[in-house]
Amino acid sequence: MCSLDFKNIYELTVATILSAQCTDKRVNIVTPDLFKKYPDFESLFKSDLTDLMKVIKSTGFYRNKAKNLKALGTLIMQEHNGVLPDNLESLILLPGIGRKTANCVMGNGFGIASGVVVDTHVKRLSYRIGLSDNKDPEKVEKDLIKIIPKKKWIIFSHYLILHGRAVCKARKPECDKCRLYDHCLRRLT
DNA sequence: CTCCCGATAT
DNA sequence: ATATCAGGAG
After folding, report:
1. How far apart are CA A52 and CA A20, in angstroms?
2. Dihedral angle sign, alpha carbons of residues A61, A29, A12, A122
3. Does residue A1 have a pLDDT over 60?
4. Which residues 57-86 in chain A have a CB closer than 7 A to strand C?
């Protein structure tokens, strides 16, 4: 139905940072204006922080996100020759990028399966279905890595997120419509 | 663990 | 009114 809109690695990275605790629908409303004004890491580096906050305000956590985006542009330009690193360890060290965002950029941007993206949906569905009892996303990821073949890591997260948004919702899961009903540990009977 | 935070669904 | 949204940093 809906996912983040992006044309390149830069846009994917920025959109994913903005998507923290925010719907991708809302991110997609903001990014056309954002990418017109700030089309690359260099423009983030040179950006006016107040203006950046204004543009991304509706995505929430806008002060932290704007600060992180400017710091990210600065670091990429000054320490990485203007190029986003293509390995998980380096990505995680960048401002605003944690494990979830790093795995997302690696998989969807560079096409490299560095791990399983564990966001709020993947965490919730993994618990409900019975794939992991852990609450720490990093531990959930370790459990999933054991179960899912590496070639399916990227598509697996996409499917769980789509299923989590459409059927196995946080508030009111529609178990009667669920195709995993027979396999689910915690279905509502 | 707490804080960051606006928009939307329930 | 409250829970939730492709989380991350201190």
Report:
1. 17
2. positive
3. no
4. 60-61, 64, 68
Structure token pair of residue A168: 């196995």
Residues contacting residue A67 through CB under 8 Å, at least 6 positions apart: A49, A95
Q: Which of A100, A133, A139, A152 is catalytic?
A: A100
Average pLDDT, integer, range A128-135? 95
Span A59-83, mean pLDDT? Answer: 98
A40 labelled catalytic? no
**Residues A187 and A179: beta-carbon distance below 8 Å:** no
pTM attached to this predicted model: 0.96
Residue A118 CB partners (closer than 8 Å, separation 6+): A99, A100, A103, A126, A137, A138, A140, A141, A144, A157
Q: Please give the Cα distance from A70 to A150 (Å, whole number).
A: 34
- Report the alpha-carbon distance of residue A133 to residue A130 in Å, rounded: 7
Residue A106: CB atoms within 10 Å: 21
Instruction: Give A47's DSSP letter.
Output: -
pLDDT of res. A189: 77
Give the closest residue to B4 (Cα–C1′): A61
What the block records as the tokens of A115 is: 């791990």
